[in-house]
Amino acid sequence: MQLKIYNSLTAEKEIFKPILEGNVGMYVCGPTVYSNVHLGNVRTFLSFDFIYRTLMHLGYKVRYVRNITDAGHLTDDGNVENDRFVKQTRLEKLEPMEIVQKYTVDFHKVLDMFNLLPPNIEPTATGHIVEQIELTQKLIERGFAYESNGSVYFDVLEYNRRGLNYGELSKRNIEELFANTRDLDGQGEKKNPQDFALWKKASPAHIMRWNSPWGEGFPGWHLECTAMSTKYLGETFDIHGGGMDLKFPHHECEIAQGKACNDAAPVNYWMHANMLTMNSQRMSKSTGNYILPMQLVTGENDFFEKPFHPSIVRFCFLQAHYRSVLDISNDAMIASEKGFIRLMEALKVLNSITPDDTKQSGFSFQDWKSKAYDALTDDFNSPVLIAHLFEAVKYIFALKDEKETISSADLEDFKSTLNAFVFDVLGLQAVEENNYEKLDQTLKVLIELRNQARRSKNFELSDQIRDKLLAEGIELKDGRDGTTYVLN
Ligand code: AMP
Ligand code: ZN
């Protein structure tokens, strides 16, 4: 079985050859912990969790590193005064490290809720200031970086003058880039507008600051990932992942830093996960088109008609390939819930099937198994794998109705393969007795009874229904389009 991975750098599906046979080094850019993660962020981390789980299932020993960005990630406009941590510190009247702790805890809670496995190493930018200063010094010594007014910048033109190719990942032409960029960040400090900061001088307002050979300052965002990935995985490692939007400039800069420091490309396979949209618009905090993961699970939101169990959200996400855009909607979630319930029912039914070694089955289990593995190894094709799972579901119900048979050897193999796909690889969790759907139906009945009580002016009864549900942690909300509920 050969694993094929789509490499964003070559724009081709390639046969995966790890540096060290049987081992994989994988680095994924982590969150910037200055606010709560939204559901879009979760999709990217979930995509890589599925990739991590698949690699392990295929027998690789994986070292998975995912960082926490807790310093130095400036806003897109590049203005130091708009540093995300500094702004949030002012807004919440907290110490920067209180902000970091608060949102790191939230991040872990959210990923835990969706059953993501923790990475093997989760390094922080602030824990690797020394390494970042060392890298900056090395880049200056090698002639790829220069100091200017207490800040240090990477010299993109010099990089290209030496035959290296800035723009190779995002397929951008350097001349075009120069023509289209205004210098918002460097305020005249940079030689060229495309030069990016390795170290920034701290203004008096900047609270997070460290001593360096260039005075007090803080590291540039791109440098932390080079420092941490190479420290834990080596100067060249197997897989680097992140959301599509990080391709440029973040990952482009990482390639440049790695090549300039070590004369070698830092990464063999670049992998980029596509975006989550809601109502066909990219999910993002800045536009307000976002939902927090917990709001989808409790039902406290204006987008979805009911709450959904985290495993159903996970299932919905995996029904799209990691390189495709996924649009989340009420209908998509309802459809995922139905599919999920049927899949879980089939797994239960399978446990009660009696094998029959005297008859030949019309369903070739071994054929099915090899097709399922083909999907998994074809650039981690979760939607095709799930389509195969539903063929298996059909077969299981045919077995139950005695329209099909299975041999005892195949039955054991079938059970263990299916369980491995569903629980280990897709990372789904059984939802006990489908409580979510039953609860939803029950609550709809109660809401209708309450409406009837109100219509007949029996407010004592209608208030009683509302208050008793509230005491059980279920809040009824009356809106223009009727009554909905929120699970607290
Ligand atoms: P940030 O904390 O902003 O650095 O983002 C963390 C991760 O979430 C990055 O890998 C982003 O690419 C990813 N991300 C941001 N918005 C979305 C979205 N709408 N859909 C999927 N991934 C996203
Ligand atoms: Zn990164």
UniProtKB/TrEMBL annotation:
A GO CC annotation recorded here is:
cytosol
- Coiled coil residues, start to end: none
Which residues are recorded as binding Zn(2+)?
C29, C225, H250, E254
Cofactor binding note of this UniProt entry = Binds 1 zinc ion per subunit.
What Gene Ontology biological process does one annotation of this record name? cysteinyl-tRNA aminoacylation
Give the EC number. 6.1.1.16
Which NCBIfam families is this protein grouped with? cysS
Q: What class of enzyme is it?
A: ligase
Could you describe the subunit structure of this protein? Monomer.
Annotated binding of ATP, by residue: K285
- Name the coenzymes or cofactors required: Zn(2+)
GO MF annotations in UniProt:
ATP binding; cysteine-tRNA ligase activity; zinc ion binding
Protein's cellular compartments: Cytoplasm
Instruction: Output the InterPro entries linked to this UniProt entry.
Output: Cys-tRNA-ligase (IPR015803), Cys-tRNA-synt_Ia_DALR (IPR015273), Cys-tRNA/MSH_ligase (IPR024909), Rossmann-like_a/b/a_fold (IPR014729), tRNA-synt_1_cat_dom (IPR032678), tRNAsynth_Ia_anticodon-bd (IPR009080)
Q: Annotated motif 'HIGH' region: location in the chain?
A: 31-41
Record's protein name: Cysteine--tRNA ligase
| Keywords recorded for this protein, A-Z | Aminoacyl-tRNA synthetase, ATP-binding, Cytoplasm, Ligase, Metal-binding, Nucleotide-binding, Protein biosynthesis, Zinc
Motif 'KMSKS' region, residue range(s) on this chain: 282-286
Q: Catalyzes what?
A: tRNA(Cys) + L-cysteine + ATP = L-cysteinyl-tRNA(Cys) + AMP + diphosphate
For this protein's source organism, the top of the classification is: Bacteria, Pseudomonadati, Bacteroidota, Flavobacteriia, Flavobacteriales
